Amino acid sequence: MGVNWTDAPQWFRSSFARAARGAGATATDDELADAAESLVARWSTQARHFHNLKHLATTLHRVDELAQETHDADLVRLAAWFHGAVFSSDTKATYELKGGEQTPASAELARKELTQLGVPAARADRVAALVDSLLRHQPAPGDTDAQVLNDADMSMLAVEPQHYKKYAAAVRAEYAHIPQRDFLRARIRILERLLKRGRIFLSPMGAAWENPARQNVEAELSRLIKEQAALPPEDD
To answer: What is the 8-class DSSP label of residue 4?
Structure first.
C-alpha cells in the first residue's frame, strides 16, 4: 500500500525545503511544502516496492555521508529527490532499461518544478543534468557531484546480505506481472553488466562499498542462473 503524506516523517518536508533554499529557491515556505508533498506522493504509489520513500530516504542519507566530496551538495540532494520521481513498472522493457525509473522525464520534471520554485535556471538545469547522469550510471569523469549521486543511488548493493535479499525481493515485487523467465533474463543481464564494470562506485568514499556490493551481486547472479537452469524448456 502506498504511503500517505501524513505517514511520512516530518524531515522529508524540511529536507526538501533546505536543499531548495540552498539552491536559491525564492518560493514561499508553503510553496516549498506543497512541492515536497507532491514529490512524496510520487514516491509513495502502490506500484513501488523498492523505488519508494525508503529508497529516497536512503539515497538522501548516502548523499549526506558523501557530501564533503561534492561541489554543491544541495544540488545533489535535489537530484536525489527527483531522480525516480517519474516511475513506471508497466512493461518488461522499462525494467531492462532502467528498473522503471523514467530518468529523462524525471530530469525534465526537476527542471520545470525547480524553476517554478525560483531556483535560478542554470542551477535547475544542473539538477536535471545530474538526474540524467543516472540513466546508465556512468557519470562523466571528473564530475564528482554526479559520481556522489551515482554512488548514493547504488548504495543498496552494498548492504548486509540479509538486507540485500530483501532488496532483491522488493525489485521482483515491482515486476510481479513479468513472467519469471523474462524477469530472470533481464535481471541476469543487468547483474552481469554491473560485474563487468571496472568500478561500480566512483567517489573516493564510495569505494569502500565496492567489495560488499560485488559479493552481493555475484551471489544473486549465481542464484538466478540456477533458477533459470531449473525452468522447464520453452515451447517451440
So the answer is: P
Contact between 72 and 165 under an 8 Å Cβ cutoff? The reply is no
100: alpha, beta or left, given left = phi > 0 and alpha = psi -120 to 50?
left
The fold of 5-229 is Catalytic domain of cyclic nucleotide phosphodiesterase 4b2b (1.10.1300)
- 204: exposed, middle or buried (C-beta count within 10 Å: 0-12, 13-18, 19+)? middle
Question: Nine-digit cell at 23?
Answer: 539552491
pLDDT means over runs of 10, the chain (236 residues): 51 93 97 94 90 93 96 98 86 51 88 98 98 89 95 97 96 90 93 95 94 98 97 78
pTM of the model: 0.90
Going from N- to C-terminal start, the domains of the chain cover 5-229
Three-state SS annotation for 5-61: HHHCCHHHHHHHHHHHHHCCCCCCHHHHHHHHHHHHHHCCCCCCCCCCHHHHHHHHH
Which CA distances in Å does 29 have to 13, 23, 26, 34, 53? 10, 14, 9, 9, 22
